[in-house]
Amino acid sequence: MCASFVWIRLTMLLPFFATCPKGLESLLLDELTQLGATHLQETVAGIGFKGELATAYRACMWSRLASRIMLQLTEFTMRTDMDLYLGAANVAWEDHIQPGQTFSVDFSGTNEAITNTQYGGLKIKDAIVDRLTKRHGERPNVDKRTPDVRILAHLKRNNELSITLDLSGPALHQRGYRQQAGDAPLKENLAVAILLRSGWDKTSPLVDPMCGSGTLLIEAALMAADHAPGLLRVRFGFMAWSGHDRNAWQEISAEATVRATRGLKQTQVQLIGFDQDKRVLGFAQDNAMAAGVGNLVDLRQGTVENLVNPIVDEQTGWVISNPPYGERLSEFPSLLGLHQLLGDRLREQFKGWHVSLISSSPELLSCLRLRHDKIYKLFNGALACELRNYQIAADAKTARPLAVDFANRLTKNIKQLEKWAKTENIDCYRLYDADLPEYNAAIDRYQDYIVIQEYAAPKTIPEYKARGRFYDLVQATMAVTGVTANKLIMKVRARQVGREQYEKLDRRDQWLEVQEHNANLLVNLYDYLDTGLFLDHRPTRKRIGELAKGKDFLNLFAYTGSATVHAGLGGAKSTTTVDMSNTYLGWAERNMALNGLNGREHQFIQADCLSWLREPGESYDLIFVDPPTFSNSKRMEDNFDIQRDHLELLGLLSKHLRPNGLVIFSNNKRQFKMDLEGLAELGLKAKDVSKNSLPKDFARNPHIHNCWEITWAETPQS
């Protein structure tokens, strides 16, 4: 390349584009302005700007926010693949790629002509190869992994295509110091955005109570020490580029080195991080040393529960952190407790301090019970997050109790039920069932475990409000019951259809043996929406045990066979347990074995219950049937609706009912109406025993199920 051309390129204003994560655009614009960029134009996830080549070099060296700095080579309208080829071929590639150098092309975006990004990249590659082959007489090579020159092409929705040359190489947020990281580390440029949005002044103390692998603290140290992030990198995309001006880059590098050396010596800022994981703290220490700021970052092992203000004088500063936020509902109890505890420690230990916390769960941040001053929308990768800034009052007091009305009601219920449960010899029962409309959930106790099932809120209640109330309820439950986070299980219960309540949610395979009167039963609190034991049917199971002595007992739609256990313990001559699911039949067998009920007199049959009833078979003295309200299972011959089909079901049952037999028929359909006339035509009669079948812990909700005892109207002739 001729010297005059190089001089023109170095002194003229060139078009560049800087990319960044969404939410950082305005910060990046300010940063580029300070670095000498002009003609700045903000777009989504980036800033277009102009400047001399040295301006782009300074951006590569000093930008703490940009992901990439790119030189714009051309922009044109592209409606066909020929437009793409010709537009790319019109670029003077011989000014950018020399003989013997390698290149690669990354293409993003599609339109009607280019529906595949690989095809778009291929057309540009062909244009480059053809032009350079013609100019140099030799074909250049493509290297997708470590090219000398990387070309980026982006096709916008308006069919405008831009082709740029990547000056960055590896993304600029990859400073080069991160040796190892814990789970879900922050990107370095997002950490900088958090620090800037927090208002931290680079001189006041900064504490991160959950520092993980140290990204926030390390970036803060680099900022405080005036240490350019680019100094830590060994490679940039422009280094093998034909237009690279080594003298200009060496001058910028030398200045950055001097400033960093001076800053590392002079800065006295206190940067302190805590984490409970010693292994992750080791990662943070290694990363800080690799960044050259190991002497500026003070890392200590500690939990939020034991968090104290490490600044010995009365100086105030900033608490800035990225607390964990889980995506699974099962993770939330411990996270709720963590955030509530963090809020308490901040009020107690950091009076007068600024606090900035980022989370993808605004509800979790609400559990801090701190009044925020400002909210910023940011993205951690593709995950939308909120950064909230707080100011802890100098006279901050303990937060008032949450959900006072709910907490009082739960306390009252526990007081009424604990003694009763002990007398009944049961250790699993309902504590609360949407007693207060604004706290719409069911709470069950299983020994020292608590299961909270959130009912779906009415559509008239905004989701954020319902979610906030639910989290208040959970925190208040933990406070009232004293349950630890690892023994609190949260589930969401929408209106279920058929056997949806049996669908698997988790795979812990964790079992708990519970007591119900004289029976021992296995429950699984985690893996399914229901636990394997319908607590509201407890009196019915007890009655089955009282009636079963010397009788042949049939349990249809048996689920986990808890009614069969009571029949067996009550002295049933034989039991037959029928369910469509092998999983639940296996569970039923385990329940029976747990109570010493083994032997040939106890049968377990996997079958569609209606189809099984249609076949000729045994008759029984005592039958319990608790069918689903509705089912359209693939294993059933047809769908089943309890209101529509209950008469057919009872007619089939009558063919298996002995002359003095009894059917206990239960279902959970609200406003179920028994067809008494149709039943009479079958020669049967029914007695509604719903009221007597309702246990004390479900007395508030008389519609949770209905229960009938069905017998022959007249004893049939044998």
From TrEMBL:
It is an enzyme of class 2 (transferase). Residues 1-18 form the signal peptide. One of its GO terms (molecular function) is RNA binding. It holds the Pfam family THUMP. Keywords: Cytoplasm, Methyltransferase, RNA-binding, rRNA processing, S-adenosyl-L-methionine, Signal, Transferase. Its EC number is 2.1.1.173, 2.1.1.264. It is found in: Cytoplasm. SUPFAM superfamilies: S-adenosyl-L-methionine-dependent methyltransferases. Residues 55-167 form the THUMP domain. One of its GO terms (cellular component) is cytoplasm. It catalyses: guanosine(2445) in 23S rRNA + S-adenosyl-L-methionine = N(2)-methylguanosine(2445) in 23S rRNA + S-adenosyl-L-homocysteine + H(+); guanosine(2069) in 23S rRNA + S-adenosyl-L-methionine = N(2)-methylguanosine(2069) in 23S rRNA + S-adenosyl-L-homocysteine + H(+). CDD domains: AdoMet_MTases, THUMP_AdoMetMT. PANTHER family: RIBOSOMAL RNA LARGE SUBUNIT METHYLTRANSFERASE K/L, RIBOSOMAL RNA LARGE SUBUNIT METHYLTRANSFERASE K_L. Belongs to the methyltransferase superfamily. RlmKL family. Specifically methylates the guanine in position 2445 (m2G2445) and the guanine in position 2069 (m7G2069) of 23S rRNA. This is Ribosomal RNA large subunit methyltransferase K/L. It comes from Oceanisphaera profunda. The lineage of its organism: Bacteria, Pseudomonadati, Pseudomonadota, Gammaproteobacteria, Aeromonadales. The gene is rlmL.
